[in-house]
Amino acid sequence: MKPTLILVGADKGGVGKTTISRSLLDYFARKNVLTRAFDTENPRGSLKRFYPTVAEVVDLGNVAHQMRILDTMESANVPVTVVDLKAGNLSYALDLFERIGVLEAARSGVFNMGLMHVVGPSIASLDEIGEIAKYLQGIQYVVARNSINETNFFEWDESTHRKYFSAIPKAQEINVPKLNEMAYEQVDVAGVTFKDFIDNKSADGTQGKFSFVLRGYVKKWCSEIDDEFQRVQMLQDITSGGRAPTLV
Amino acid sequence: MAHTPTVYIIASDQNRNGKTLLARLLADYIMLDGRDPFMIDTDSPDGPLRNYFPGRTAVADFAQMQGQMKLFDTILGSPGRDYVVDLSARHLEGFFKATSELDFFAEVKSVGFRVILFFIVDRSVSSLKSAHTHEHIAGIDLFVPVINEFIGSNWLKADGAMFIPALPQALAFAISDKRFSLRSYVLGEMQNLPEDLRPTLTSFMFDVLSNFSNLEPLISLKSLRD
Lengths: 248, 226
Hints:
The complex is a heterodimer.
Chain A: E1 4-9, H1 17-30, E2 35-39, H2 46-50, E3 55-57, H3 63-70, E4 80-84, H4 90-99, H5 102-107, E5 112-119, H6 123-132, E6 140-146, H7 158-165, E7 172-176, H8 181-190, H9 194-198, H10 212-229, H11 233-240
Parallel strand pairs in A: 1-4, 1-5, 2-3, 2-4, 5-6, 6-7
Helix pairs in contact in A: 6-7, 8-10
Chain B: E1 6-11, H1 19-32, E2 38-41, H2 48-52, E3 57-59, H3 65-77, E4 83-86, H4 92-102, H5 104-110, E5 114-120, H6 125-135, E6 142-148, E7 162-164, H7 169-176, H8 182-186, H9 198-213, H10 215-225
Parallel strand pairs in B: 1-4, 1-5, 2-3, 2-4, 5-6, 6-7
């Protein structure tokens, strides 16, 4: 089966990009799909904190680092590579990948590629969709509307919505449900994956002392996210181990 | 026979129909039985149960996540004893939504508890309806409909209900004093209760305590039926 490269990006910080990357990695772990992850939040790398063994911190502008991600796509024998792009770096990364031939490789079927675009409720996010549309041919595009830290409800008016999405015919949308703040914080403080939190395992592998209530709400939230991820064609193809996504 | 640690839930869809009195009677019964119950009162911030059982009552505001943690995590954190949960009417729905979302009853079972739900059914049709929706909640070992004679009820008395006799006003008032311990009364301390009220309270306590002790055979019967 062809490997899949999934970019997770957002046009601004604080919309929950790393949370989505974490949920994705967790999702694959629950489905027994091996993953690699790259965090371009150089040098800090918050993804690395939650996935010390899976995630690597890289600098996308550095050619050696680009090679570490891309030249190993096929040789790594890992079906999924998740790249968490630095906030605001989405257009830059796509432009870079276009220039060095990554997008072309994906279009010609060397590997599958998807972009998970995390957006908050502001209209600025939609502007970015217009800006990146030109790169998206042959790439599965998923807009993740993130409510995780938001109390206000998403309300995109129909015409604005159509205007942006008409440029990207195969776009899919998912909604990331809200997770109780206290539960979110506790997972964050513990520095463990959502899965380990649910299983009451602390970062050092010993039995955790996490609240049953918070574990329960994280579990419920994960099952809601699973339902959303299950609707995404690209992810279905990976977890079913089946055919490649239909490209535009 | 060794006693199985139990989570007792006192609930109703209506306020002011005797939940706290029932919780209090139950707590006193458990202690008279030589057990060591802990009470969780969801009626925050007042927590009337705390007045009667200071030192063994937690007040948890179920509307807050902290309150939910206080309730559920306290019970799961120290299994092996009995818990009496006094559930305010306003938290009835939220409580059972949470227990189902968190699969709480399966979790308490896994650490050796059983669950008994007391539901006070008053005269209203909505109360009767609510009792019936809560009658078959998964994970509850025994559902006990409760008729409070003072309030009245739509539940048929013959239909397996627990009956709390009405008390004359003077007596109800006297025992509502937070210094008055029903347990001590049963153990022979009159606590300045006027002499003319004593026979009524004695017979009331006798009725109620026998009702509680009849629950054990009820549970055994139910488990035979199931």
